[in-house]
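Board notes (copied after class):
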Amino acid sequence: MKQREKKHLPGALLATLLGAVVAASALNAYAHGGASGIVKERMDAMELMGKAMKTVGEMFKGQRAYDADAIKAAAELISRHAQDIPGLFPDSHASRHGKVTEALPAIWEQKDRFDALSEDMLRESLLLAAVAQDEEKREVRRQFAKTAKICSSCHTAFRKPKD
């Protein structure tokens, strides 16, 4: 029985993480109204990353046909934006206080931790791109879950909670 529970836990974790990513994407579309400058630039990048995560998540939820090439493309898009994340959060008045920013002061107070999560996202998304062509979907799903967990961790620590 315990073996069976362990098999289902990653799926439950994946479903929870996917729900958070999908909800964040929907709310981001609404929240971007009025954003400008660096705040809009980072919101746009995060929205693209969220859409890429949603696309892959829908494949594992059976809502979209499994497509290894699309997973690889999504992971590559995520990695391109992940490497830019630290630069999208400069310690400036516009960055900290721009209209509709969702960034918490913790980003600049815990810059090393924030930058480390950005590096983790880059690494894990590159690994996702690398395993995307793997015929073993379980490995691709596992790597996707690791990538999604970083999104969730960063949003929990460094983004204003959604109402």
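Comment from the instructor: Helices lie at 2-31, 37-60, 68-82, 93-97, 106-109, 111-131, 137-158. Residues 1-9 have pLDDT under 50 and may be disordered.
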